[in-house]
Amino acid sequence: MNLTPEAAALLERWVQAAEDIAPALAGEGDLTWAQVRESYGKQLAEALPAPQGVSFERVELNGVPTMLVVPEELNDDRTLLYIHGGGYVHGAVEGYVGLTGHYAKRMRARVYAPDYRQAPEHTFPAPIDDVFSAYQALLSAGTAPERIAISGDSAGGAMVITVMRKARDADLPLPVAGVAISPWADLTHCGPSVRSRAGTDPLTSGELLDDLAHTFLGDALPTDPDASPVYAEVRGLAPTLIQMGENEVMLSGAITLAGRLAEQRVRTTLEVWPHMFHVWHMLVGHLPQSDEALDNAVSFIVREYERAR
Questions:
Q1: Domains in the chain and their CATH numbers?
Q2: How many angstroms separate the CA atoms of 287 and 10, rounded?
Q3: What is the pLDDT of residues 76-101, one digit of tens each?
Q4: Of 102, 278, 281, 286, which residue is the catalytic one?
């Protein structure tokens, strides 16, 4: 990767923020999971702070604590449900003030980021249930589904697909569009990229993903379609954009997911970005590829808003 010194330094700070995760997964270290998440979120927020021109507050959606991001310039009928990543184990909405803030400013939309329950305290399907409950709350509050989009990264990217499926199966209106960033779409990790990309992504590895999956799944199988959307029936979902870094060990799963969506007549766009790492969007404002990828995501969603009018 040819990164600027600034971007390389920020990426290294991100890697350092995650250093407590592997020991915690192994049952080692002195921190509780709550402390691991708090430390991770605080360090990310310091390294990748919110842009100017956005405000943050805590709200609840069907009892799910949620971070609401509101830009100064707001198109009042645009809403984005953003699902943070973290392997269903260690994510923290506080660490996403940068990415959600930039998303909100570019879309001129309210962004709701559910602070969903996580493993090991709350295993599968608790995180998914919380996010689906938050989506239901937006509908119940009178938000028009054609003005709601869903986006998320990593585990949250997989939940973009799963939440749309759950809405379809419950006969609820679907959002206007879904954007899955670096989705963790296949928890079996059987694709070739787990081996061919080993060591190329500084943020994750096959071994780490196996440990995260084991912690999250509990007694569930990694082929459960709610955990691994590559095994799901996805017909009838909203138009979906998948963005993936070429260096990611999860690359095969994302390509398989895009193929499955396309085979089942979901309008699907797949972007694979050469040399990019897991959720490179986090460096928005500091890395040109991050800015361009987020701009593409926003353009995709805005086009669907316009089509739905």
A1: 5-16+43-308 (3.40.50.1820)
A2: 10
A3: 789 999 999 999 999 999 999 999 99
A4: 278
